[in-house]
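Case study 2.
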Amino acid sequence: MNYISSLIDAWPKIYLDEIQDELLNRQDIFVSISTLSHTLHQLSMTCKDVASEAIERNELLHATWQAAYADILADYCVWLDEASMDDCTNQCTMGWAEMGRACICHAAFVHGQWLSVLPALTCKGIIALDIFEGSVNKECFLTFLNEQVVRLASLLNCHQLHN
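Prediction:
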């Protein structure tokens, strides 16, 4: 049971037949699929939708940033973020986790051909947007900032000065 639990911790999207193969190949133990299912139930494991979490996420840096900039009014902020999708459609979307816990699989978010969206958002809505094929790199991001966000901010400032 410990081996099965550690397999699921390391590989949350593992299928029952893959657990069966791992037990046979690495532990020289044959277990039926129904016995595996019963064992997972005893371990309080349920099959559920998988939530992906970026490998690059750093909770300490996130909390530090929030503490440092929490006093800035939202009206003064512009949020920039990349959203993208790829052409990989055969991703396993189900996995195992203990009851009451989300099934999270750490994964690199780069697969296949990308379509990317770069929006600039304010409290009043989207002020700039770029949609293109491929991944966002430093050059694309700086071009978006300079040609759309900074230019638009300059135009808005000039308009406000004249009014």
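The chain has five helices and seven strands.
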